[in-house]
Amino acid sequence: MKWTPALKDFEHYLKIERGLSQNTVNSYRLDVQKLMQYLDVHKMPLSPSKIKAEAIQQFLYELAKNSNARTQSRVISGLRSFFDYLVFENYRNSNPLEQIEAPKIGRKLPDTLSLKEIDKMVATIDLSKPLGERNRAIIETLYSCGLRVSELTHLKISDLFFEEGFIKVTGKGDKQRFVPIGSNTQKLIKNYRKQGRRLLDITPEHGDTLFLNQRGKQLTRAMIFTIVKTTAKKAGIQKSISPHTFRHSFATHLLENGADLRAIQMMLGHESITTTEIYMHLDKSHLKQVMTKFHPRRN
């Protein structure tokens, strides 16, 4: 068995049988390719079916010299999944990473923006510019619906159910969910469609795509990052933010205002409630208010 065909089969398994998104599949592929590159550089002719824990441990020692604990943990997880697949397909009898532990990492608390900072960003957008209405609608949709970047770029006009107050979102693994959308965000999207989008020369394949670039094509992830970074800089916000910051802010603000964690999980599209629990990083004053209001021995 050779590495390249084994990796191709693994990618196919992740995408077709496990239904993972292309971004997730790419991450797994990069994890395995790092090991492949290490073996090639060190002239170690070890096949996927024959490589042992000692060689992988040597690779991880080298990786640790130039990467943090989070990266190491990510690579170990990816490799473990790859070799689990080989065991499942009877190419190996055991997983060489069974006895290898990932480094301990603390759960990173997400950065958030205050409502005042978000309002400041929105107010900074120049609506006299051709792309102003689009960029304002993008910022508002990211925050008001808590979308991932890929979910925003793939959002379609046919996914908008404004009369019912929802949008249909296609998340990781092509799993779909309905997310509430407020009347103000609906208004901004309608304004963008009337005053900006309809003036574009839209390509046939992107006729149903909501947010488009100047050439009438679907926006890339990189372009959304650029829009957010540029707008934050103009607003004078010093924090290092990304499109995902709006998703964090969405969840945090809901939780701080008393929303149920399970409801937030459903809106974010998290498979596990433990993923949503990261948003429990509330300030102590809020926790005291919750205790005072809801605990039976609050007095």
Describe the structure.
It is a single chain. The chain is 54% helix and 4% strand. With 299 residues, the chain is mainly alpha-helical. It folds into two domains: 86 residues, Tyrosine recombinase, N-terminal domain (DNA polymerase, domain 1), CATH 1.10.150.130; 175 residues, Intergrase catalytic core (hpI Integrase, Chain A), CATH 1.10.443.10. It has a three-stranded antiparallel beta sheet with strand order 1-2-3. Strand 1 and strand 2 form a beta hairpin. Helix 1 packs antiparallel against helix 2, helix 2 packs across helix 4 and helix 6 runs antiparallel to helix 8. It starts with a helix and ends in a 5-residue tail after the last helix.
Secondary structure topology:
Blueprint: H1 3-17, H2 22-41, H3 53-65, H4 69-88, H5 115-124, H6 132-145, H7 149-153, E1 160-161, E2 166-170, E3 176-180, H8 183-195, H9 221-234, H10 243-256, H11 261-268, H12 273-276, H13 284-294
Antiparallel strand pairs: 1-2, 2-3
Helix pairs in contact: 1-2, 2-4, 6-8, 6-10
